[in-house]
Amino acid sequence: MRKNEVRRYYTISEVADLLGLEPHVIRYWEKEFPQLKPRRVAGRRFYGPPELELLRRIKRLLYEEGYTIAGARKALKRSSRKDPPSEKLLRELRQELEHLYRMLS
Questions:
Q1: pTM for this one?
Q2: What residue numbers bound the domain in which 96 lies?
């Protein structure tokens, strides 16, 4: 896999390399965090962008913010209750960022 290559799905070993984790840690987190559900094909795990983002959040909560597994589980549950940003808001934010980029260029 090339450094900046964006793919649709990654194997557990690729995800482990991307996140600096061991595959057994990811498998353990699958048992502890019910939100983490990779696709399974012929017994192999495949992780898409939503799973990668969730794994990054779990890693940040546990390793950087010092949460326990139970605490991280609660934090994820709380954050999942919040409504995601609307498409309109994201579009407006993107337009504003593009405007700022053009001003700075």
A1: 0.69
A2: 10-104
| Total residue length of the chain | 105
Domain containing 96 — which CATH number?
A: 1.10.1660.10
Domain total in the chain: 1
Q: Please write the tens of the pLDDT for every residue from 33-82.
A: 999 999 999 999 999 999 999 999 999 999 999 999 999 999 998 877 66
C-alpha closest to that of 32 among 72, 84, 82, 92: 72
- Within 8 A by CB and 6+ apart from 59, the residues are 19, 21
DSSP letter for each residue of the chain:
--TT---S-EEHHHHHHHHT--HHHHHHHHHH-TT---EEETTEEEE-HHHHHHHHHHHIIIIIS---HHHHHHHHHHHHHSPPPPHHHHHHHHHHHHHHHHHH-
User: Which of 76, 63, 64 lies closest to 32 in space, CA to CA?
Assistant: 76
Instruction: Report how far residue 80's alpha carbon sits from residue 72's, in angstroms, rounded to the nearest whole number.
Output: 12
